[in-house]
Amino acid sequence: MLYQTCRQLITRSALAAWKSGAALHMPRKSLGTRQFSMGIDGYALVTGAGSGIGKACALAYAREGAAGVAFSDINVEAAIEAAKESERVAKNPRYRSLVIETDVSDQESVDRMIDLVVQTFPRLDYAVNSAGVGVETPAEVSEASIREFERFLKVNVTGTLLAVRAQSRVMKRQEPLNHGTDSLRTLGRGVITNMGSGNSYVATPHIVQYTASKHAVLGITRNAALDNAPYGIRVNCLCPSWVKGPMIDRAIAGNPSLADAIKRAVPMGRIAQPDEISDVVMFLSSPRSSYVTGAGWIVDGGATLQMHT
Ligand SMILES: NC(=O)c1ccc[n+]([C@@H]2O[C@H](COP(=O)([O-])OP(=O)(O)OC[C@H]3O[C@@H](n4cnc5c(N)ncnc54)[C@H](O)[C@@H]3O)[C@@H](O)[C@H]2O)c1
Predict the structure, then answer these.
(1) Candidate list 214, 231, 244, 291, residue with the active-site label
(2) I need a labelling partner for 279 at 20 to 30 A (CA). Which of 22, 167, 238, 297 fits?
(3) 133 lines ligand 1 (CB under 6 A)
(4) Family per UniProt (predicted)?
(5) Which SS3 state, helix, strand or coil, does residue 208 take?
(6) In Å, what is the CA distance from 78 to each residue of 54, 178, 213?
(7) pLDDT of residue 181
(8) 8 Å CB contact between 217 and 237
(9) Beta-carbon neighbour count of residue 131 at 10 Å?
(10) What is the DSSP letter of 271?
(11) How far is Cα 56 from Cα 51, in angstroms, rounded to an integer?
(12) Is residue 246 within 6 Å of ligand 1 at its C-beta?
């Protein structure tokens, strides 16, 4: 049994040494990626899975070995395309994808989304709430558009709360999932990751609607983490700065100087790739982060470190 489990990890000479009873010192280069596996083998739900960060997270679950991923998005065509892509990259032979047309700002739509997940998958182990809207009307606070502010509250704030609420209800009802022999390092009843922003901590001129909504997402995360901790459900908030994808492409199209401004604002001098966000989400979804809850996890190339003078 041990041999079966380890055979893909160890070299032929190391295997011979193990069979002969010698101590097994595995050379560093013999460690396959499975050695560092995140232990992702359950069922995931991702909102905003049709594009950008949500799509990267949903595909990452499939690649890591999830048994099923639900692709939820208001743009159902985009979600279908992403789900098809996941079928091509999925590692788990039992893998199933599910597409759900959802408006996260609508309670009935979110409840229907959760019902479909529960009817299709035996469990809900990981949830990522990435559905969100981008700024359409940047303006100083004195000129802020209340219509746009309310759109951000509806989608980014109420949408996140509705999703977290429904996901928490499902996770609370299920048994904890155990990994390995260490009973403390388990997945628990589930993990929820909300998509915050560097703007969950700091402000950017002319986008009060975005800053307020992302501060609220961090607040929802912290309260949900506190309320869910007794049930073994972890809730964290991923806080990126700028990430390559359609949302930022649209912002740059509307303001071409933004591309250079991003390079100047990020100490690492470049925009993040979506995989650099989804990799951290995989860690936060894994028993490897079993003691991390209520965190605002900044992934910003150092953007929020500095004060501009
Ligand atoms: N891209 C960045 O630089 C960046 C940086 C920090 C935080 N974020 C946050 O990450 C999240 C995802 O951003 P992205 O860059 O992937 O954007 P994106 O525009 O590529 O994807 C957002 C997805 O959400 C979906 N969506 C929008 N409104 C919805 C609704 N009402 N119901 C369901 N789905 C809806 C869209 O159809 C789209 O597929 C957002 O919350 C965003 O604020 C993005």
Answers:
(1) 214
(2) 167
(3) yes
(4) Belongs to the short-chain dehydrogenases/reductases (SDR) family.
(5) helix
(6) 11, 34, 25
(7) 63
(8) yes
(9) 26
(10) P
(11) 8
(12) yes
Mean pLDDT by 10-residue block, N- to C-terminus, for the chain (309 residues)? 26 38 35 63 98 98 98 98 98 98 98 98 98 94 98 98 98 85 83 98 96 98 98 98 94 89 95 98 96 98 88
Q: What is the pLDDT of residue 95?
A: 98
50 Cβ closer than 6 Å to some ligand 1 atom: yes
Nearest to 47 by CA among 91, 92, 112: 112
DSSP secondary structure code for residue 266 in this structure: S
Q: Is 180 left (phi over 0), alpha (psi -120 to 50) or beta?
A: left
The pair of structure tokens assigned to 85 is 């892509």
Contact 35, 51 (CB under 8 A): no
Provide the 3-class DSSP secondary structure of residue 235. Answer: strand
301 lines ligand 1 (CB under 6 A): no
Query: What size, in residues, is the chain?
Result: 309
Distance 227 CA to ligand 1 centre (A): 26
> Ligand 1: distance of its center to the CA of 237 in Å?
14
Please tell me the predicted confidence (pLDDT) of residue 1: 20
Per the annotation, the verdict on 244 as an active-site residue is no
Q: Token match 């250079």: residue?
A: 260
Q: What angle do CA 207, 209, 214 make, to 5 degrees?
A: 100
Tokens describing residue 259 = 């591309």
For residue 292, count other CB atoms closer than 10 A to its CB: 15
Tell me the whole-structure pTM to 2 decimals.
Answer: 0.89
3-state secondary structure of 68: strand
Task: Identify residue 291 by its one-letter amino acid code.
Answer: Y
- Are the CB atoms for 233 and 168 separated by under 8 Å? yes
What residues have CB less than 8 Å from 173, skipping those under 6 apart?
Answer: none
Does ligand 1 have an atom closer than 6 angstroms to the CB of 138?
no
The first and second tokens of residue 35, run together, are: 């050695």
Specify the residue with its C-alpha closest to ligand 1, atom 40. Answer: 132
Residue whose entry in the numeric block shows the structure tokens 């912290």: 222
- State yes or no: is 214 an active-site residue: yes
Nearest ligand 1 atom, CA 210: 43
Backbone φ, ψ for residue 177 (5° rounding)? -100, 125
